Amino acid sequence: MQALLKLSKAIDWLNAQVGKYAIWLIFAATLISAGNAVVRKVFNYSSNAWLEVQWYLFAWSFLVAAGYTLLQREHVRIDVLNSRLPKKVQVWIDILGFAFFLTPLCVVVLYLNIPMVIEKFQSGEMSANAGGLVRWPVWLALPVGFALLLLQGWSELIKRVAYLRGQGPDPMGRLGEKSAEEELAQELLRAAQNNDTAPAAGGAR
């Protein structure tokens, strides 16, 4: 188990580094978008190549940061229901999700996509737009992103199994803060509890 936990830490480090630098892709896309808008308005000129660079960068930032997002527990979760369950039940739900949903999905995407990327690289497929870019760099973001997501899913799976075996810390609270969904779930729970107690207080008066 200790060897698997070391592997988990290495995966966490990898996705943390990717997430740290992925923000620069968004920054670059924002600058290019602003520059395109200014040039189009001021000089009445537009370039398909620069327009495509924008969504290439956005695609890369969105896909390669998927593993980092999972590391930070910021993927969409149904915490309104999940947060009411016992901790071990929550951990088991995560284990089943990582093992039987996330892993097969990522494997299928990689299996179908990698040959497609190789084909597009070998053919040198270009954009259908005039002055557009070669296509394989943006397609490459898919296998890279899903590979990082798959690795992070395995890392999270290792941490949850270690927790159930008493060999690891609580994986649900490792970040020291609640996710946005968890905070919303708690607010909704408090509001429901306040609504339940309000009629009783009114009756007492």
Care to describe what's here?
By secondary structure, the protein is mainly alpha-helical. It has one domain. 78% of the residues lie in helices and 0% in strands. The chain is built from seven helices and no strands. Helix 1 packs antiparallel against helix 2 (48-64), helix 2 (48-64) runs parallel beside helix 6 (136-164) and helix 5 (87-123) packs antiparallel against helix 6. The chain is globular and about 60 Å long. The model has no long low-confidence stretch (mean pLDDT 84). Belongs to the TRAP transporter small permease family. One of its GO terms (molecular function) is transmembrane transporter activity. One of its GO terms (cellular component) is plasma membrane.
Can you give keywords for this protein?
205 residues; mainly alpha; 7 helices; 78% helix; transmembrane transporter activity; transmembrane; cell membrane; TRAP transporter small permease protein
- Series of secondary-structure elements, N-terminal to C-terminal: HHHHHHH
In total, the number of domains comes to 1
Oligomer state equals single chain
End-to-end span in angstroms? 60 Å
Give the fraction of residues assigned to helices: over 70%
**Poorly predicted sequence stretches spanning 5 or more consecutive residues:** none
Q: Judging from the principal axes of the Cα atoms, what is the shape? A: globular
Strand content: under 5%
pLDDT averaged over residues: 84
Main sheet attributes: strand count, strand direction, barrel closure? none
C-alpha-based Rg, rounded? 23 Å
Task: Count the DSSP helices.
Answer: 7
Secondary structural class: mainly alpha
Number of strands: 0
